[in-house]
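G., before I forget:
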Amino acid sequence: MTGFARARVKKMIKEAGAWRVSADAIDRLNEILADYTTNLAKYAVEIARHSGRKTVKESDIILAATK
Amino acid sequence: MTGFARARVKKMIKEAGAWRVSADAIDRLNEILADYTTNLAKYAVEIARHSGRKTVKESDIILAATK
């Protein structure tokens, strides 16, 4: 399992206005989030390398998110 | 703080190939993820309501993610 804490994901769906949330809805959103995070992070790593750095900085994340 | 566990976010950035990650990079990605989750979840809640349901199902999440 490579996602985030299920309880946290569920809480965020509830905070978005949901009365009830099915278990597979939580798992699916968690998967989508993990994919989104991986893609964005990979792009941020590329940007950092392109800039000659080994450290991923906040500005790399910001630039990756504007893709 | 409304995001995910920092250690988890950091691990995912490292798994994406980062050598090092600055603390503010982790926090920024966490913020972006929280916004993304909230927006997607709100849309899924709207879709469920539109379908006359009080329960957010996996199919609502999938449809919301194709937006």
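The mean pLDDT of chain A is 96. Chain A touches chain B through 41 residues (CB under 8 Å).

More on Monday.
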